[in-house]
Amino acid sequence: MNQPSILKLVSHSDNNGKSIDLKHILTKVLDNSFEIIIKYWVRALHIKFGWIREFDKIIINYVSLFCDLFILDVFYSSAKLINTFIGHTDYISDIDYSNFDNDQFICSGSYDQTVRVWDVDNNKQIQSFNRHQNYVNCVKVSSYHYHNYRKNVICSSSLDKTIRFWDFKHNKQLQIFDQPIGVNKIEFSPFNGGRYLCSGSYDNNIRLYDIETYKLLYVFSGHNNVVYSVAISPLQSNDDNDNKMNIIGVIGGNGYTICSGSYDKTIRIWDIEDTKSFNVFKGHQGWIMSVKYGSNELRNTILSGSSDKSVRLWDIRSCKQIQIFNGHLGGVMYVEYSPFVIKNKNYNSNVICSGSSDKICFWDIRSNKNKLYEIIGDIEEDGETCCFKCIRWKKKNAAYDMNLCYGLHKGQIRVLG
């Protein structure tokens, strides 16, 4: 891998000449609250909060920059192949992760028509579900079933016109949603503990389900071609509830929206309450393969990846493109905000990640000039890279436990860490 230049952290001294190791301080970000680290850092440098109104924001943004680059730098410089899961026999379409009851699992969907569950700690497959009759396009872990019923459930969508729910602890299928045509990507709501499920389909529509009642709530129509990717807007709250239950009463009337990416080369934003599209983003020259909402200070942005080989950042309020990132040689299948950052209500990452058949790239959203890093696979040996998931695994005696899990065209799932 080529090593592009990146900002390095260095030691500084306080007013008494005492050396301050910023690396040591920033390492603690992974295990302690961000506020504690900021207070310690500011105290060590004899800086007082409140001397100007926005100083706290300046400090947080300044340290955030170092956190982003430091974490990514550490991962990139030390990462190695630590595991390969073998079982699928075809293209890996999607990967998700769960740590129910402190047990760590990866679930995967494949064009071999199976959904599989892997035990991370024991490095083995523990379940395989084979009732789909066509390609499995997406898999997602259901936090709603776990927090409400203590069930370990994953959800999968398929070209066979179904969305299926699987209890992988008891090895059984729970429920099926039938659609008139093949289903692409699915997404659980970040609010109400993941009670709502959104899907994009080959009939150009988006559907929203209530998984508590197993009922179809709304159908969103407006795209002129296949809807491939969907996302639901983040929790409209200042409280960090770690995706636990947040009862808001009804889904409509709370400002929640759905974002969809289509083969018609547009991205649309939909009001959940009236099912109407109120923003249309145009600029991509190919199919929209992945869309994601930002959070915290980036909550008014959309990130997208396209078969035109570009990654783009959009402003929801102005309906305009903010940045375009070029550098992939193949279509961009997946995009992610803040791939290696712990969720924190005061923390806003500037790093994004994108994946195509030829490489996985890391970018700084403040500049579209250069990639921070790229990871290039061995296409001859493994086939193309199909999907990826950035995961923070729990490991003993490890300062950093960031892992990059990615699926390959030939069916392998590899883990870098």
From TrEMBL:
Keyword line: Repeat, WD repeat
Stored PROSITE patterns: WD_REPEATS_1, WD_REPEATS_2, WD_REPEATS_REGION
Protein name as it appears in the record: WD-40 repeat protein
Placement of WD repeats on the sequence: 85-128, 129-176, 183-219, 254-280, 281-324
SUPFAM superfamilies cross-referenced by the UniProt entry: WD40 repeat-like
Alphabetized PANTHER family for the sequence: F-BOX AND WD REPEAT DOMAIN CONTAINING 7, WD40 REPEAT PROTEIN
Organism from which the protein derives: Reticulomyxa filosa
